[in-house]
Amino acid sequence: MPSILPEGDPAPADGSLPPSAAVGADGRRFGVYVHVPYCRVRCGYCDFNTYTASELGGTRRDDYAGQVQRELGFGAEVLRRAGVPDRRVSTVFFGGGTPTLLPASDLAAMLASIRDEWGLEPGAEVTTEANPDSVDAAYLATLAEAGFTRVSFGMQSAVPHVLATLDRTHTPERIPLVTRWAREAGLQVSVDLIYGTPGESLSDWERSIDAALATDPDHISAYALIVERGTKLAAQIRRGEVPEPDEDLHAEMYELADARFAAAGFSWYEISNWSRTAGTRSRHNLSYWTGEDWWAAGPGAHSHVGGVRWWNVKHPGAYAQRIEAGVSPAHARETLSGDARREERVLLETRIADGLPADVLRAEERRAIPQLIADGLIDGRAAIAAAGRTARVVPTLRGRLLADTVVHRLLG
Question: Which PANTHER family does the entry link to (predicted)?
Fold first, then answer.
C-alpha cells in the first residue's frame, strides 16, 4: 500500500498561508503539479499514492477532473488572500499513478483550469507521465492540441524478465511506437528507466540503455530501484523469492548509463536526469531542486510556497469529501525556518549540474571544500571563483554516486 503521510502542524480548513509565504515570491517561479492516483495494476516496487479500481471505495474516476478543477480554483484564492503576487505558471506536470488512464479530454480540462486561474507563461512546459500501453496516436495528438508540450513514458526496461519482476504491463515493442506517435504529435519525449531490479544483469541494463537511445528521446531519466517497505517486492525479497539489490552493481549500472548517454550527446543536469540540450531539461523537475513554488492538486499531493509545505489527504474518497465540502484538502503542513531552508538548499543544489553557490555555505562549512576536491567528489575548477564567475559546489561522477557523503561533509 502507499506510504504513510508525514505528520505536521494542523492545516487550516480555509487553506490560509502565513505572511512569510509571500516574501520574495516575485523572484520565484510558480508551477502546478496534478496528481492522478489511478493505476490499472499496482507495480510490485511502487509505494506511490496510487489506487487500482478495487481500492477506490466508491469514488469514481469520472468525477476526478472536476474535483481537481475545484481545488485549483480554491488554490488561486488561497494565494490571493495570502498576498502572493500574481504569477503565470511556468511549468505543469501531471504525474501519478497513470494520468493517461483518464480520457485525454479530462487532462485537457484540468490544464484549461490552470490556464484560466493563473495563466501560462509564453513557452510554458506542460508534461504528462504515461504508461506505454495507456495511449495511442490519437490520444497524444489530443494532448498536443490542448497545450501539452512533453510526455514522459514509463519505459523502465527493454528486457521482458525485468518488466515482469517490476509488474509492468507493456511489452518492449510498444516503446518505439509510442515515442514515434508523440514526436509526430509535436511533443518532446522523455523516457524513464529503472536499474538494479532483482535479477537484472549489467548486460540486461545495457540492452535497455540501447533501446532507450534508439527511440531518439529528448530526455532520459534513470533511477536506481529502491525497495520500499510494505511493497510486494520487499515481501518477495524477505521471503527469499528474489535477490536483494546489489549496491556495487547499482554503481556500475549508473556509470555505464552516464557514459553511454554522454556518448550519445546527452548531458546530466540532476543526478538521475539527462537531456539532449539545455532546452530539453525538465524545468518542472528542476524547480523542485531549486526551491521554486508550486501548487500540487490531488490526493496525497505535496505543495510548497515560500518555505511553507503542505500535503493533501491520501485517499481519493477523503479528498473528494473535502473538495465537495469546500474546505482545504490538506492533511497537515510545516513552515521551514531560515536555517532549515538553507540546509535543504545545500542538500538539493549539490545534486544538480549547475551546483550550489559556495557563498550559501557558512565559513566553517566552506572549509570542507578542499578535501572534497582532493577526494574527487566535487569539481575543483567550479569550486574556485574566477573573474565574473561565482564559486560553486558541483559534484563529479564519483560525487554523484556519493551525494549523501558530500552533503554530510559540508553540513557536518
Answer: COPROPORPHYRINIGEN III OXIDASE, RADICAL S-ADENOSYL METHIONINE DOMAIN-CONTAINING PROTEIN 1, MITOCHONDRIAL
Scan for cell 521554486, then name that residue.
292
Interval 19-39: pLDDT, tens: 999 999 999 999 999 999 998
395 in Cβ contact with 405 (< 8 Å): no
Three cell numbers written together for 103? 480520457
9-289: CATH class: alpha beta
Looking at the domain 337-412, which fold is it? Arc Repressor Mutant, subunit A (1.10.10)
* Partners of 96 in beta bridges: 36
* Three-state secondary-structure class, residue 308: strand
Does position 199 have pLDDT exceeding 50, yes or no? yes
Q: Which amino acid is at 294?
A: W
Residue 312 CA to residue 333 CA, distance in Å, equals 9
For range 63-78, the mean pLDDT:
98
Whole-angstrom Cα distance, residue 235 to residue 1?
Answer: 12
The pLDDT score that the predictor gives to residue 1 is 43
Question: What are the structural domain ranges in the chain?
Answer: 9-289, 337-412
SS3 for 218? coil
CA gap 384, 377 in Å, rounded: 14
> Is the pTM of the predicted complex or chain greater than 0.85?
yes
